[in-house]
Specification:
331 residues, alpha/beta, seven-stranded parallel β-sheet, three-stranded parallel β-sheet, 17 helices, binds adenine, binds zinc ion
């Protein structure tokens, strides 16, 4: 099974670049930027990863990214992620980044996006990993701040494929960002939003994503299974759901294997992703292996999940077909 998973060409549609910040890189960047850390070794950093829900995770996630200061820092962060992706035969990625988490610390938007883009170009040329970037808004900040960042992004639109919505979901519904997402759509960007697992008002949030925002994809979205009408509508529209099993195990203590199977049996396009792999200590292949080892997923099911990822990706039609043909040859 491990070999089967390794050999599959895979797409990752839900990975936060800041969530790929490995403890060793935290140390290297802190040293380079003259920042003192409250830990003596990378192992001590990992030992302090004490999260059990979304807010406790986010606190650690935002604190660590203070070491990201220069264009080279963002380049290295991103290129190191692509190196790991390439080693796991992940051939296509739509990574997220959180510009507000950097501009709020005095790092220019341009610094962030230039560093990421340089790594994307190099990864395509040197590693054969293609990617298209998604800019996320932090939903616990204001709609005005989100709109200001969308305006900041306008000169860089050719660097973006879409926009997303992440961070603390509690009392921050999709409706709060309706205007921002309508503007993003008018600029030609694709739309996705986190509907994190077991959040307050989650069914209402999923409904708003469908009816008000008219998203092109949903990140997580596992709770849709609690509502027949939502499931039917998601299946009818062919909407992708980017599920993150090991991340779910950290924040809801469950790999959601049963739920993923239910999605597949209902014709919902579930995909498997790593979310914040440096924190949850699992990249793409470890997520798929966990489903196989702990939830008994078969090769055929893993192939379906992988095929779904290319199908619901925002690749141009010909590139999508290229990878679907490659997968068909392996079936
Ligand atoms: N930002 C980074 N990781 C996230 C997650 N798992 N949920 C919401 N926001 C995030
Ligand atoms: Zn996420």
């Amino acid at each position: 099974m491990k070999d089967f998973i390794q050999k599959l060409p895979k797409a990752e549609l839900h990975v936060h670049l800041e969530g790929t910040l490995e403890p060793e890189l935290i140390f290297a960047l802190a040293q380079r930027n003259g920042i003192s850390l409250p830990y003596a070794t990378p192992a001590e950093v990992v030992a302090a990863y004490d999260f059990h829900d979304l807010p406790s995770f986010l606190k650690i996630y935002y604190a660590a990214m203070d070491v990201l200061r220069t264009e080279d820092d963002f380049y290295e962060l991103t290129f190191e992620y692509f190196r790991r992706a390439a080693a796991q035969n992940v051939v296509y990625v739509e990574p997220f980044f959180d510009p507000q988490a950097h501009t709020s610390r005095g790092v220019a938007f341009e610094t962030v996006i230039r560093g990421i883009r340089r790594a994307q170009d190099e990864a395509a040329a040197r590693l054969g990993v293609e990617s298209q970037l998604i800019m996320c808004f932090l939903r616990d900040l204001s709609a005005e701040s989100a709109m200001a960042h969308l305006e900041m992004a306008e000169p860089w639109l050719d660097h973006l494929v879409g926009v997303g919505l992440d961070s603390d979901e509690k009392d921050n519904p999709p409706a709060k960002f309706a205007e921002v997402f309508a503007r993003a759509r008018a600029l030609g960007l694709k739309l996705t939003m986190h509907c994190d697992v077991n959040q307050k008002d989650i069914l209402e949030h999923i409904r708003e994503c469908l009816d008000l925002i008219e998203v092109d994809r949903i990140d997580h979205g596992v709770n849709a299974l609690e509502d027949e009408a939502l499931c039917d509508e998601i299946a009818r529209r062919g909407l992708g759901l980017t599920v993150c099993p090991v991340s779910n195990r950290f924040v809801v203590q469950n790999l959601t294997g049963d739920e993923i199977r239910k999605m597949l049996s209902r014709g919902m396009k579930a995909t498997i992703n790593s979310d914040d792999p440096a924190y949850f200590r699992a990249y793409m292949n470890e997520n798929l292996e966990a489903l196989a080892d702990e939830a008994g997923f078969t090769e055929a099911e893993i192939l379906t999940l992988t095929r779904n990822a290319f199908e619901v990706s925002w690749l141009p039609k010909a590139r999508k077909q290229h990878w679907l043909d490659r997968l068909a040859a392996l079936a």
